[in-house]
Predict the structure.
Amino acid sequence: MAKFRLPEVVSKTLEQYKRQGERYQIFPCRIEVNGNTYYGASYHLGQPVTGYITIKEDGSVPSLKLEEVELATRMNFELSNINEALYTTGFRVARKRHLGFMRRTLSILRWVERTMKHEMPLDIQKALEGFIKAPQSTIENHLRFKELVKKADRHISQRVKDQVVTPEDLKILNDYHYELWKCATMQNIVQMNTYEDRKKVIRYLFQKKKIFPAIALWFYHIRMHPDEEKVKPKDREMMKEVIDVYINGNMEREEKMFQKALEITRNPK
């Protein structure tokens, strides 16, 4: 794959806007908006981002007041974040080896359902249905998550190979990004929401002397997420933010992040 190279005039502009001690990271594609070509980069002092810049192919730095320049800047910012989330976290989550134990959990629960549900009190039947949802939903969402990771990876790889992105690519990758993290979030939610149901079913099995399935399900139960009250306050707050974005579709926080990025963008405002 050919290495992405900036036009010399663009490289000179990047150097001119660089401050003491900074390095810059180039967005690895041309950004095409309305037939015009832009180049994007971020400036860093160590790891933290200290600024962004959007440069025209003639080396000039256009004003952010122009709608397409703001869009090109958004594409640089959001596509970089999607890329980082996919390759630093998405692949790691996709490789998690929990499908096996979720399938074993579901298999035991289906046995309990076939052989014991008819004699269970109604509240235990309802709890069993809730318990079944935990591995069932986790399996479905994790398989979809893995599929979306592959699709996003293929799309990014093709764009990097072509060395160009358009607003359509931003839309496609945003859709993949939000759906795949919704799938990840749904796995956590269903496990937290079924915590009490899981405990109730396991208690019932011990009472009925069904020791092997009770112990096996208890072992799988403690590997799942607890209910919200047992989650650390810091993690609980983070989970609420994630649910707000990926389940409720509240994009206010995401937009605030972009507005903060615009504040440190070095284009004229």
Observations:
- The longest strand covers residues 36-44.
- The beta strands are 23-26, 30-33, 36-44, 49-56, 164-165.
- The CA atoms of residues 90 and 149 lie 7 Å apart.
